[in-house]
Every structure is written in C-alpha cells, then in structure tokens.
Specification:
The complex is a heterodimer of chains A (355) and B (421).
Chain A (H helix, E strand, L loop, with lengths): L1 E4 L4 E7 L6 E7 L8 E9 L2 E10 L3 E6 L6 E6 L3 E6 L8 E4 L5 E6 L7 E5 L3 E5 L8 E4 L4 E6 L6 E6 L3 E6 L10 E6 L24 E6 L6 E6 L3 E6 L9 E4 L5 E6 L6 E6 L4 E5 L20 E2 L1 E6 L6 E6 L7 E6 L3 E6 L6
Parallel strand pairs in A: 21-25
Antiparallel strand pairs in A: 1-29, 2-3, 3-4, 4-5, 6-7, 7-8, 8-9, 10-11, 11-12, 12-13, 14-15, 15-16, 16-17, 18-19, 19-20, 20-21, 22-23, 23-24, 24-26, 27-28, 28-29
Chain B lengths: L3 H13 L6 H6 L6 E8 L3 E2 L10 H16 L8 E5 L6 H11 L7 E5 L5 H15 L4 E9 L13 H4 L11 H12 L3 H20 L10 E6 L6 E6 L11 H5 L22 E11 H7 L5 E10 L8 H13 L8 E4 L4 H11 L12 H4 L3 H19 L3 E8 L3 E9 L2
Parallel strand pairs in B: 3-4, 3-5, 10-11
Antiparallel strand pairs in B: 1-8, 1-9, 2-8, 5-8, 6-7, 9-12, 11-12
Helix pairs in contact in B: 3-4, 5-14, 7-12, 8-12, 11-12
The chains are: A mainly beta (355), B alpha+beta (421).
C-alpha cells in the first residue's frame, strides 16, 4: 500500500489519469473544505513511491476533479467559489480556462467518455451544466432545484447524463430530446420509494423504514448500460435499472456506518464496486449479478428484487472521512486509490483486503 | 457563495439527518422523552378452578398486585395519575379497576380505566398508558393485565344480530377459539406431531426456567384464601409459583392425549398442546425517562412502540405472523436485530405456524416457555409477556424484545421493548 500525505489539505477527490498508468490527481481543501484554499496535486507513482509532479493552489476549496479525455495533461476542478477551472500540467500556477456560472459550490465535474469534447458539472445551486472546453459559456443548463452532489455522463452514450441530489432522486437527462419545458429531463427515480407492485391493483411492498435522505454519489456501470448505483446519507448503496425504475432498487448493499461519500464501479468487473464513507472505511462490494455480463440483462428473468449485495473486503487505513475512491484502469484489476480528510492518499490493491 | 457555517451544517446534516443513523441505534438511543418502564411484576399464574388463586376474585388479585407495585416501586403514590387495567372477562370491569386502585392504597387522584382487546388487553393497557405519556396527558401511569378465569369463566361470543351471523366474515366470530386453531392446522398443514413437539418444548423450557429459579425475578407472591372443595374449609395461603408446568413432559407423552375438538378436523389440538386456563396478573410502571431520572427511579426498559393488525377471524391464530413484520417495518429493524420473541402460545398450531412463517431462530422464541406450559389468563398475558421478556433480556444481558399475540376475532398485536437494566 502506497501512501502520500497532502499536508495542509484534506483530500476531497482522487482520479487516475486515463492516459498514463502511473499518474493520478488529487483535489484537496484546507480546513476540511469549510474555509480557505484548495489545491490540486498531480502525482506520479514511481519506484520511490508517490511523488508530486506539480500542484496548483486555488483561492477556494476544491471538491472534485476530472481528467480531460482529449488532452493528456489537462485536468478540470470543481471549486467552492462556483468556478470550474481547467489546468494544464505543463504550465504553472494558473488555469488555462476558468468558467464561472454556478452560483454556489460546484460539487462534481465529469468528462464525457464518448463525446470527448464535453463535460458536465453539478452544484449546490441546483443546476447541472454541460460545457465544452473551447467555449466560454455553458452549452446547456439543466435545473434540478436541489443541491446536486454528483452528475455524470453515461459511459455508453454521448447524450445521456444523470445526477443525484439532496432530494433523494436520480434524474436522467437526454440531450437529444427537443428543448422544452422539461429541460431534457427524461426520467426521475425516487431513490427511497417502495417498488411498485408488478400486479396492477395490488398494493406494493410496504415502504421500508427509510425516509428520503440526501444522495451524495452515483456511478454508471461500465458494462451494463442500464445499471447505475447510488449512495449517500442513508449508508446504503442501491443499484437501479433505468429501464425499470418502478421496480425500485435491484441490489441493496448495507454495511457502512455513516454516509457514503463516493462510489465507483470497477472498470474490469461488471459486478464489483468500491465505496468510501464517513465511517473511515473503503469497501469493495459484489452486487451479486452474474459475472462477466456485458450489455443489458433481461430483468424479467432475474429473481425478485432487491437482492442483497455482499461486502467483499474493506480497507480501514484512513483515520478520517474517506471522500474519494477511484479504480486504476491499467494493469491488473484491483488497483485503486483513496483519499480522505486525514490528508492521506493511499494507492492499494483491493484483492489484498478481500477476506 | 455559502458561508463556512453553511458548509459545515451541510456536512453535519449528512451525519445526523434521519436515515444517517441506523434504525437500531435510534431505537437504542436514550432520549429524555422516551417512555420507560421502572417496575415490572407479575403474580404467579395458577390453574383456574384448581390452583392457589381459584378463590381470589379479580378485585382481590388487583389489590394484591397493585399494593406490591405501590410498595416495591418506592414511588410516591400521589404521582400515579392513571392505571389502565387490561381485562377481558370480568363483568363490571370499570367498577373493579377504579375500586381496586383505591383499595390498594392509591389516593383518590389516581384514575383508572380498562382496556379490552381480548388476549392483547395487557399489551393494549401498556400502549394506552405509554400513549398518554407521549401525548403529555399524564406523567406517570401503571399498566396492568389481570384475569380471574376461575371466577369469570369465558362463555364465548354472545348472541349476535342476523346482520353479523349472515355476514361472510363477521359471522366467523361465532367460531370458538378451538375451532380457529383447527382451521390454522388444516389450512397450513400443521400436523399433530408438530403440535406436540412445539408444546413439549414449551413445557421443557418452562421446567428448566422454573427449576433454575428464573421466574423468581418476575413473581411477587399473593397472600390469599383458598377454599377446600371437599371440606369447605378456608385456608390462608401464600401463592408464590406457577403451578401449570408439568415436569418431564415430552412430545410422546403429549401424543397420548385425546383430541379436544373431534368435531373439527384435523382435530390436532388437545388439552396438552393448547394454552391452559389460568388466573394471574401483571403490572408495569411507566413514565417519561426525564421524570424517572428526576425521581431516581430505576429504568428497566424503554417502550419502543406497538402496533395492531387485522385478519380473517377464522384463522385468528396467525395474527403474530402479520403483526410482527408490521411492527418491524415500522421501526426499521429485521428479525435478526431482535434478541427475544415472546409470542403467546394460544395454541401450538399458531405457535408452530408463526415461528415457521417468520423464520425465527427457535432459541429466541419464548426462552422460558409460554402459555401452553403455565397458562394464558386472557387479559393478563399481554402484560405478563413483557414482564417475562424484560426479565429474560436482563438474564441474557440482551437488548431488544418483541412481544406478540394472536387476538380472538382476528387480530394480532405486537410491541417492542428495549432492556436497559
């Protein structure tokens, strides 16, 4: 397990470079992101451990980052002052672009993996915005009317993006739909609602004792285009099939003791995901779906949902809230990185913590 | 932009908002406005028309128990505002309740009422007192369940109007309880062997509990009079133990008993695998936690809530299999979070069915035996089960108990209690 200390800055997000197998970036904030500067580190894995290549210090806290998918040296940051900045690792100190449209803290940025000239951002101001790096203004604004902690393009489609909000909904937008009063909103899944009974007229399963609570993170499955996972304040990870939203969660993963701050599906395995939580642990989960599935699964052939996911292992080295996790796409499956409020970045192998 | 305070409170909300805390830790949490139990007692349960309490009327039973409550609680009787008596059979219940409260040494300011929902009356009395405390109507109350089946025999349903007897479901309430037990056995395939095994286990657990002295923790003796049926001589006696527990009972020995209801198939219910007809009473003192702390009262347990469910009267026995999941879904727990299930054994048929249906760990169900072994004084049982469950939680050093019972005319009630002793 490799370790790097982001001294003076509490980690908020970590991402592996999509271009280099030894490069990653960490976004951190002084004073736990409450007040003070932010700093984005570009780090390299070397035979001598983790070495900082460069860092950029910003006026306000940094809450998230995203590597550019078209330029190997460029990284986006989401800032507490409502700005989104694009930094170039070959340059010093200042961003190459600065977008300032959000009215409150930007909590997430995510680069489109298919249409690589686009990225999106989400903010406390209750909007998701879609941008292109070479334009000074956003292309589209998608209102959610609720603090939006996480927004993400589907890895399978250039035009579909999703977000989760503090009002406990997953929202899906399809940018191909005509501009209208619905603002491209095509689907809204209540995360905490009971599933609707498949038999018309019969009452559904009685609602479980989980009042709606803030959703803090979500991620699209990399192999099954209709599956995404959400997690947040209620300590529970749920997977949803966007083709059957009324069925409720497909899989429920319970075990974290405090809010879950970040989840990420494995880039190698269709049924494995990693979570980081305020309970100071990172946990690897199996959603109990058949391994090796690529593409859509026939949900009519699945058993009664939801199934309970299984915790495969946990990493407990962090001594404060874990705020970011990311898988390494390169090399053997299992390598990942995690950051937390303990000013620590760990690079570790999930297989080493599996029981 | 947001101020540091706003940023901080948004993160604090992520840690403290509803849902951020697990349902179990919420239930185990100690809040000043919790309803807590500071005393839980019961009389011995003795066989109707044969046991030590056979000549003790309901009012005498109540006076004896309430006097013990007044003395053992070390609580100023002036603080007791209401006493709710769960009772099913006694005519003039309301007269008896209030009069017994006064005769037991409580001042005129202590009110009384009765609660009657058949076998759940004792639990209903607890819920009534707890709800009054939650609503702020009273500060301190006593919940009682009491039944003298010797002096108030159960004569079944009264004459009912044609509108009821011709109603397809309401008319089922004419069916005697024994018939509903056979209905459960036939509809859900509970065999005679399963009945007897369930009943034998109840006897064996109760025998073990009695020999190990576990019941001493629950019971207060009753000083009363017994009339010898042959000579007519009246003797003063102290009744201090349950008398229904037949030692050495096995499924084989129960298998020899003949069917109690040959007229209703499958006729699997016998005198050996159904609850006994019994006299007895149980009482609990309830108040807000803040009040208990103020008064220096010992806190035995917290009242976690109760619920009721309805079902077809003809299979009323399976009520707990509906009421328990309903209660658990309300408080957000699973059956694995529960340490003890105290389920009334009205009949072995319903007991077997409920344990199977809910998939309960048998070692958690009625660890001291149940109504088959030591009796089911109808109005008493709901309160008695809570007294037993709390004592057993204390013995095992466990936390959470669910109590439940089937209710005649087709209902099931369940309550949850958290031990703090």
């Amino acid at each position: 397990m490799l370790h790097f200390r982001t001294e003076g800055y509490n980690g908020c997000a970590v991402k592996y470079s999509p271009f280099f197998d030894n490069r990653l970036a960490v976004a951190g904030s002084a004073n736990f992101g409450l007040v003070g500067n932010g700093r984005m580190y570009i780090l390299e894995l070397t035979p001598n451990g983790i070495v900082p290549v460069k860092w950029f210090t910003t006026q306000d806290s940094l809450y998230d980052l995203a590597w550019s998918e078209i330029h190997e040296n460029q990284v986006l940051t989401a800032s507490g002052d409502g700005s989104i900045k694009l930094f170039d690792c070959n340059l010093n100190d200042f961003p190459v672009q600065n977008w300032k449209e959000h009215n409150r803290e930007v909590f997430s940025v995510h680069w489109n993996l298919v249409a690589k000239d686009r990225f999106c951002s989400s903010s406390w101001d209750g909007t998701v915005r879609v941008w292109t790096p070479d334009r000074p203004h956003s292309l589209v604004t998608l209102p959610t009317h609720s603090c939006t902690y996480s927004a993400s393009f589907s890895p399978h489609s250039p035009d579909i993006l999703s977000c989760v909000t503090s009002d406990s909904y997953v929202r899906l937008f399809d940018l191909r739909t005509p501009a209208s009063a619905s603002n491209h909103l095509t689907l809204q899944i209540p995360i905490h609602a009971a599933p609707v009974s498949p038999i018309p007229g019969k009452p559904g399963v009685p609602p479980a004792a989980c009042p709606p609570s803030e959703a803090l993170t979500h991620d699209w499955n990399k192999y099954r285009p209709s599956i995404l996972a959400t997690a947040g304040v209620d300590r529970t990870i749920r997977t949803f099939d966007i083709r059957a939203p009324q069925q409720g969660p497909q899989t429920v993963m319970v075990g974290h003791d405090y809010a879950i701050r970040k989840i990420s599906w494995s880039p190698h395995l269709s049924n494995v995901l990693l979570s980081g939580s305020y309970d100071m642990t990172c946990r690897a989960w199996n959603d109990q779906s058949p391994p090796g599935v690529v593409g859509d699964v026939d949900s009519m052939r699945a058993g009664p949902s939801p199934t309970m996911g299984v915790e495969m292992g946990r990493m407990s080295r962090h001594t404060e809230f874990v705020t970011g996790v990311d898988w390494c796409m390169f090399g053997s499956e299992g390598w990942c990185a995690s950051v937390g409020w303990d000013e620590s970045l760990y690079v570790w192998d999930v297989r080493a913590v599996m029981g | 932009m947001s101020s540091p305070q706003q940023r901080l409170s948004s993160i604090a909300n992520q840690l403290t908002s509803p849902g951020a805390v697990s349902a179990k830790s919420k239930l185990l949490a100690k809040n000043p406005d919790d309803v807590v139990i500071t005393l839980a007692l019961r009389t011995p349960l003795t066989k109707a028309r044969k046991g030590g309490l056979k000549d003790t009327t309901l009012d005498e039973l109540l006076i004896s128990l309430l006097t013990d409550v007044r003395e053992r609680s070390k609580l100023d009787p002036n603080l007791v505002e209401d006493v709710c008596v769960g009772n099913v059979l006694a005519p003039g219940q309301a007269y008896i309740a209030r009069s017994a409260v006064l005769a037991a040494g409580f001042p005129v300011t202590a009110a009384a009422s009765v609660a009657n929902r058949f076998c759940s009356s004792g639990l209903l009395a607890i819920q009534n007192i707890a709800n009054q405390i939650i609503a702020g109507s009273i500060d301190v109350g006593i919940a009682v369940g009491a039944e003298s089946m010797s002096t108030n025999p159960d004569n079944g349903a009264p004459e009912l109007s044609d509108k009821i007897t011709s109603h397809p479901i309401a008319s089922q309430n004419k069916q005697p309880m024994g018939q509903t037990s056979e209905n459960v056995a036939s509809q859900f395939g509970i065999t005679r062997e399963m009945h007897d095994q369930f009943a034998a286990k109840s006897y064996q657990k109760a025998e073990h509990a009695q020999k190990a002295g576990w019941f001493n923790d629950e019971i207060v003796p009753v000083h009363t009079k017994v009339k010898d049926p042959k000579t007519g001589e009246v003797k003063n006696v102290v009744v201090d133990r349950d008398d229904g527990i037949r030692y050495g009972t096995t499924a084989e020995s129960l298998g020899k008993i003949r069917s109690a209801f040959p007229q209703w198939k499958p006729s699997a219910t016998t005198g050996g695998n159904a609850s006994q007809i019994t006299d007895g009473a149980a009482a609990l003192v309830l108040m807000k936690r803040s009040r208990a702390q103020e008064l220096g009262q010992p806190i035995l347990a917290k009242f976690g809530g109760a619920t009721i469910a309805g079902l077809e009267p003809r299979i009323m026995g399976i009520g707990p299999s509906i009421a328990i999941p309903k209660l658990l879904s309300k408080v957000g727990l699973t059956k694995d979070d529960i340490d003890i299930f105290e389920i009334n054994e009205a009949f072995a048929s319903m007991g077997t069915y409920c344990v199977q249906k809910l998939g309960l760990d048998e070692s958690k169900v009625n660890p001291r035996g149940g109504a088959i072994a030591f009796g089911h004084p109808l109005g008493c049982t709901g309160a008695r089960q809570v007294v037993t469950a709390l004592s057993e939680l204390r013995r095992q050093n466990k936390k959470v108990a669910v109590t439940s019972m089937c209710v005649g005319t087709g209902m099931g009630m369940a309550g949850i209690f958290i031990s703090e002793a």
